[in-house]
Amino acid sequence: MKKITLALNWKLYLNELESIEFVEKINHSKNQFDLIDLEIYPSATAIRSVRNVLNHSSIKIGLQDFSIFEKGAFTGSLSLSSIEIDCCIVGHSERRDFYNENDNLILKKLQISNAKKISTILCVGESLNEKEEGLSKERIKSQLSILKNLDIQIPLTIAYEPIWAIGTGEVPSKEYISDMLSTIKSELNTLYSHQKNSALRLFYGGSVDETNIRNLSDIVLLDGFLIGGASLNAKKFVDIIKKSSI
Ligand code: 13P
Where would a tag sit more exposed on the chain, N or C end, judged by fewer CB atoms within 10 A? Predict the structure, then answer.
């Protein structure tokens, strides 16, 4: 069985103390972690504390987003150099929707993480309207088209996160996810050499929890999951780990 990656996107849910409490609890189940690779994306303010509690474990810690500005008069911004991290996320639909991030800006962020050689998750996914109008694949292809301007040097992950599945409890069928991942894979094949492509990972995100992860883990093209809501509760999360690695 392949070793999958669970990436926990805590969004703006857990504050610093709650984040510490979470990792202290999961530290008790450390023996389960050998079966999976784990990445945690806390609030930026909690990164240092989470790292300290995890204390040199193999769990990777990353930024949910960052500014394209490295340093300077950019009040309220965070750059990839602001704090020590292993990985980052760009292009999450919540950044696209609430902060009007467009493909141009997302490309700039990718170019920055690529130049700094920081492992990156690029999120793509269609809205409910796009799905209902039969435009899901077009949407994904257009979001991926920015990659033709990126000579990837880093471990890059594409996370397929249909917007209509995020936080709704509605999970697409395995066939639907497989079909979308195949589309992503063939787009990547047109952009990159076989060697580069084989290093890329594909994740799914959107209402993944302890009740559906076992079933979704069968999807052949899948290397991991990007999990929001169900990753906020330590006990639930340990259940997810157990179910994902049966
Ligand atoms: P949920 O797991 O809460 O649906 O969120 C998915 C997500 O947006 C992860 O980035």
Answer: N
The CA 162 to ligand 1 mean position distance, Å, reads 10
For residue 195, give the H/E element and its range. Answer: helix 194-199
Which atom, in ligand 1's list, is nearest to the CA of 92? 10
Compute, in degrees rounded to 10, the torsion defined by CA atoms 156, 10, 208, 111.
-20
Distance CA 159, CA 156 (A): 10
Q: What's the 3-state SS for 104-157?
A: HHHHHHHHHHHHCCCEEEEEECCCHHHHHCCCHHHHHHHHHHHHHHCCCCCCEE
Among candidate residues 243, 234, 157, 161, the one with its CA nearest the CA of residue 201? 157
169 lines ligand 1 (CB under 6 A): no
- Residue 72 is given by DSSP the state S
Q: How many CB atoms within 10 Å of residue 158?
A: 25
Q: How many residues does the chain have?
A: 246
The catalytically annotated residue of 126, 161, 187, 210 is 161
How much of the chain is helix, strand and coil, in % rounded to 5? Answer: 45, 15, 40
Residue-wise pLDDT tens digits, 153-191: 888 999 999 999 999 999 999 999 999 999 999 999 998
What is the token pair recorded at 136?
């899901």
187-201: burial string, b at 16+ Cβ within 10 Å, e else: bbeebbeeeeeeebb
- Low-confidence stretches of the chain (pLDDT < 50) are none
